[in-house]
Structure formats: structure tokens, C-alpha cells
Design brief:
The protein is globular, with a radius of gyration of 19 Å. The longest helix has 17 residues. The protein is 46% helix and 11% strand. Helix 7 links the parallel strand 5 and strand 6. Helix 4 crosses helix 5. The strands form 2 sheets. Strands 2-1-3-4 form a 4-stranded parallel sheet. The chain is an alpha/beta fold and 284 residues long. The chain has 13 helices and 8 strands. It has 2 domains: 118 residues, Glutathione S-transferase Yfyf (Class Pi), Chain A, domain 2, CATH 1.20.1050.140; 144 residues, Rossmann fold, CATH 3.40.50.11810.
Amino acid sequence: MRERLGYYPGCSAEGTSKDFDASLREVLFRMGVSLQEIPDWNCCGASPGHVLREELGAALSYLNLLKANRAALGEVLVACPSCYSNLLKARHLCMEDPEIALRWSELYGAMEGDPPVVRHLLEYLVEQMGEKGIKAPLRRPLEGLKVVPYYGCLNRLPYVEMDDKENPVFMDQVLSWLGAEVIDWSYKNNCCGAGLSVPRSEVTRELAARLLQAARDHGAEVISVVCPLCQFNLDSQQGYAGTDIPVLYLPQLIGVAFSLREDDLCLSMPLVEPTSLFRAKGLL
């Protein structure tokens, strides 16, 4: 029997990070998990919501938790770090700030019991699925593939209490269970420039180039990420950095190890294509 798990895709899952969303759904299905989207979910408030009003972004996330609550989803999986942080903030305020909780209940409707538990993809893979759950569908271990895990700012975002803030290892663990050669490096949680790619593109360009060059110098053949902004910033600055390293979402790498179809994993979406590397390694 499949586990039923609530899911908040976030806005980027329907656009720039469709490959993240598609591969995530595929690999969790192989692991026996049935994802159920929050009905009629809305934007989490993303980055600009709090600029207009501090409470606005959190209220938008409260609406998502309320919709999940009404759909009897006691646990909600989130992949995007910004969405994860915002939903955690809304849950925290709902439970710890009686004034805000009452105001939201009156404006938008009250929760039945506690709001849903919010879990990040990495947290779920390591703490819920574990090594046994991830290895069960393994068909083609990533042996010989040199991967650097890049976390970006995930573990240091507000309200995130997961893994180690200074030296996160959850992605390292998953990659090692897949059989990859995981490269340890000190850049794993350096900022890539995040949302500055539009207003201050020169900042993002320099930060991303520094990360790409460090990955190359450490011998990386692939960079593994769990953030749409990180993937875009690193992938799009390869020309400036003088590098040619595929930047893939962790579920895409899991899917390769599960022998899933290239199209199902959207391996054609990254600007630096990974398929020739995978074929050379005997992984496709």
C-alpha cells in the first residue's frame, strides 16, 4: 500500500524547475509514495511578499496550510527552500503567536487541530525513507560518478532546523547510498547569489562562477542541488566561469540510479546536458 503524502510544489515547479517537480514525483512513486498536491494551492509569498508587509507572505503560506488541513493532509512535503522556510514560518506563527493565529482564523478560517507538519525533501529522504527505502528501487548505482552536493542557503534560512547549519550532510548521505563518489568541499553552503540574479546580476555572476570553479577544481563531474534558484544561477553562469559541469536536481540523480526514463527525469532541460556523461559512465 502506497504512503499518501501531502505536497506543495511551489510556483517554480510549473515553470523554470519543471524538471525538479517531474523527477521528484517519479522517484517518490518508485519508493512507494503517492504525492497529493494541496488543493488549489497558492504562492507561498516567495521573496517579495514581506517587502509589502511582513505578515503578508506568512498569511499566504497560512492559506496553503489551511487548505492542506481541510484536505486532511497531516504532513506536507516541500522541495523549494524558500517555500519550505515560508511555510515553516506560517506554522510557527500559527502555533506560537495567539494574536496572529486568531486574526488569521477570523480572516481566512480556522484550522482543525494543529497545522500540518512541514517537511523538506532532504529531511524526508534521510529521516523517513532512510538508506533501506532509497536503496530498494536502486537498479544502476552511480559508481564512478563524482558529485559535489551544493546546499546553498537552505539550512540557514529562517525557521529551518534541519541537518547541520554549517556542515550539512543529508544530501551527501543520499548520494552515497546511491553509490556516487561524493566529494567533500567547503563551498557546499556558500550563497550563489539567489534572487540577485535580476537586480544585481554582476553579484550573482561572480558568486556562481566562484562556486563552479571550485567544483571543477575539486574534480566534480556533476553538481547536485535541491533549489530552483541555485540550479538556475549555477547552470546559467557556466560560460562566464569557463566551466561545463551539469547542475542537476537530486531527484534527477536518484532517478538515473533507479533506471528511470530520460524524458521522465527531464534530463534535456539543464543548459549543460548530462546525458553524454551518463552514457560514458554506463548509467544510461
